[in-house]
Amino acid sequence: MPDYGHPLRFGSFITPTSAPASRPGDLALLSEELGLDLVTFQDHPYQATFLDTWTLLTWVASRTERIHLAGNVLSLPLRQPAVLARAAASLDLLSNGRLSLGLGSGAFWDGIAAMGGRRLSPGQAVAALSEGIDVIRGVLDVSQTRPLRIDGEYYQVNGVKRGPAPTHTIPIWIGAYKPKMLRLTAQKGDGWLPSISYLQPGDLARGNTIIDEAAREAGRDPAEIVRLLNVSPNENAEDLVRLALDEGISTFIMPGDDPRVLRRFAQEIAPAVREQVEADRSRRGVVSRTRIRTAAQLARRVPNIDYDNLPASLVDRAVEPSDPAYARYLSGYMRGGAPGLVLRPQTIEEVQEAVTYATAHREVPLGIFSAGHGLSGRSLNHGGLVIDVSSLNSIEMVDASTGRVRIGPGARWVEVARELAPHELAITSGDYGGVGVGGLATAGGVGWFAREHGLTLDHLRSVDVVLADGTLKHASETENPDLFWAMRGAGANFGVGVSFEFEAKPVGKVAFAQFAFDVPDLVAFLESWGTAIESADRSVTGQVILGPPRGGKQYAQAMILVDSADPDTIIERLQPIADIAPLIDQSVALAGYDEIMAAFVSDEPQQGQGEPLAHSGLIEHLTSGFAKEIAAMLEAGASYFFQIRAVGGAVADVPSDATAYGWRDANFSVLAMGSARSGLDDYWKRVLPHLEGLYLSFETEVGEAALGRAFPPATLARLRELKREYDPTGLFRDNFFINPADVTVTQ
Ligand SMILES: Cc1cc2nc3c(=O)[nH]c(=O)nc-3n(C[C@H](O)[C@H](O)[C@H](O)COP(=O)(O)OP(=O)(O)OC[C@H]3O[C@@H](n4cnc5c(N)ncnc54)[C@H](O)[C@@H]3O)c2cc1C
């Protein structure tokens, strides 16, 4: 007798009545409140008194957080498949991966024909559904780059672009009764969804046999097809247990129009069924299969990852190489990747479970991914695990009067700036709005207010961290102060930051200047830039960007923030900088910090490929010796992007041993990006003696020498000790790994 070992799910089946229009939605909210797993709606678009099912699903998705959604079942003859595929991907994205597609081949043909749909015979309707599924799957298959063409008898698509990629593989459940439909379900479906009221005794067993045989013929494991059933209020717990154990039904959907029926189902029947089925399964040693995959999907898994024993809370949103959402993890902003498995926790508890799962996989790489802008941080990897915490992206104003704000690691700085702007507050971040809180706040944060406000991490008041053993620790000056010290500069080595509490500062309109310089003498220019910035008022923070000379001429582009809205003050503070070389272009605008952040962000998908090459340096003064080496490097074309940012000022007010970001007396942070190691590395070797250390976020070199430059000796010695305490197996190692096994104490 079949028990396919699928997880048990319980759902509601609601009539989309418009009398009153609030009723179906209220029943859906009740379904979530009662802890049901799924809410479904009938779909009869020709029924004048019904709300449109898709609109209702969308409304429910936006009002709920957890419950899964489906049409039960959607009338495909009235829902154009290519459009339905896009709608499904959209709703899946908007609902965070909670959509399933229940599909039917059509019934009530008079109604369908009245709506302009084509009247089909039963055989034609099955063939049309088969083509429709191909169209839907094809549009959703973003792993294919070529536009989709299907020249079917019932549906034709002629070069339709694929996408958007849904959050998860959207299962297709088919409402089938007759052998042809059952065989189609076996060949192309992910689930069989009949209603008990249309079944005769023996139909479930007969249906299962047809599906199982046809699945095997199609080279599929019968367990790839989940068995769902619309039950009736007459069935009690014993009936459902029998249906689960004897007929393989794992998802039970109860009519949900009567709240009393729903309550009884959720509060009495479902728990009893769960308990009895689980007890029976454990007696028989049946392993509960959390997620069923096809042979082709299984073939894309990588070795050494225990895909079948994921924590239950993470299964639905986990991303394997064969999933549509996987395309997101082939590229970060700066580098490419091809992880073996991506876990996407949505709560702190789920992060804890993900980390615990990762500890059992110490031998494969582990990346912690917040917003994907890592240079030094390998948040993506090849064949390893990635814990993507981008869903933890809340921004919560704790107390506007003190500037206290609590932020999740997945929030991007542009969003933080936008949330704080109405309160006339800001947290100095980096210069790029798309960068994530998780990566930047744990390493440094050198941005537009660096000289006036210091680093981003100087504004951190506490952080909640999931440690390597899966425990959650709160770290602040008073609680776990060692961990708090380490998280501010070397955070990626100590755990996953899951909640950051900052103290934002009052900020009004500021001036943002952009200068383009003609640079006849680069060495003189760099020395003058250094002097001008160092002697500027602290309200001035600027950066200059240089590339190789073009047509024999050197140009420089500078961006400078002046924290003032008074035109005379702005001009007075900018003038000494404007004077250092001939200006070929200039602009100054008054703007909010949120507007500046919004100017430096892209909402295009990240497209990094391969490995970036970047070297970083922290330096106290831009000396002529340093400037000469930079001039030689640029002259040779060894770096295509060279940037000098201002630090110093408030950054240097903080004692060097107060946080793990230790090189406080540097006035400048420099970054050179190159495309060929041979070119850039040769020149960089000559720059190194002029540097004090490096800012790890801008360095792609790994190993002991780079580690020694990232942290002053005493800082590194203390970090090594703490690493042994907090992460003795070296689980967190994707970003300037401090190996706990290495006993060298550099002092
Ligand atoms: C275009 C661009 C502009 C930049 N501008 C600036 C700038 O102006 N100032 C500046 O200081 N930096 C800047 N950076 C560097 C940036 O701060 C780092 O690359 C940062 O790590 C990116 O964070 P992320 O969350 O976006 O990246 P991810 O790739 O998601 O993460 C990078 C690394 O950070 C660590 N990490 C991520 N999340 C967490 C977490 N929750 N807990 C613990 N560790 C975590 C991991 O080691 C991970 O590998 C810039 C980078 C880019 C690509």
Cα separation of the termini: 69 Å
**What percentage of residues falls in helices of 4 or more residues?**
25-40%
Spatial extent as radius of gyration: 30 Å
What's the CATH C level of the largest domain?
Alpha Beta
Provide the structure class: alpha/beta
CATH homology group of the largest domain: Luciferase-like domain
Describe the structure.
- The protein is of the alpha/beta class and 747 residues long.
- The chain has three domains: 9-284, TIM Barrel (Alpha-Beta Barrel); 300-507, Uridine Diphospho-n-acetylenolpyruvylglucosamine Reductase, domain 3 (2-Layer Sandwich), CATH 3.30.465; 510-591 and 613-699, 3-Layer(aba) Sandwich (Vanillyl-alcohol Oxidase, Chain A, domain 3), CATH 3.40.462.
- The protein has 24 helices and 28 strands.
- Strands 1-2-3-5-8-9-10-11 form an eight-stranded parallel β-barrel, surrounded by five helices. Strands 25-22-24-23-27-28-26 form a seven-stranded antiparallel sheet.
- Strand 10 (226-230), helix 8 and strand 11 form a beta-alpha-beta unit.
- It starts with 8 loop residues before the first strand and ends in a 21-residue tail after the last helix.
- 50% of the residues are buried.
- The mean pLDDT is 95.
- Residues 332-334, 367-375, 377-379, 389, 409, 430-432, 435-436, 438-440, 442-447, 491-492, 496-497, 697, 734-735 line the site of flavin-adenine dinucleotide.
- Flavin-adenine dinucleotide is lined by residues 332-334, 367-375, 377-379, 389, 409, 430-432, 435-436, 438-440, 442-447, 491-492, 496-497, 697, 734-735.
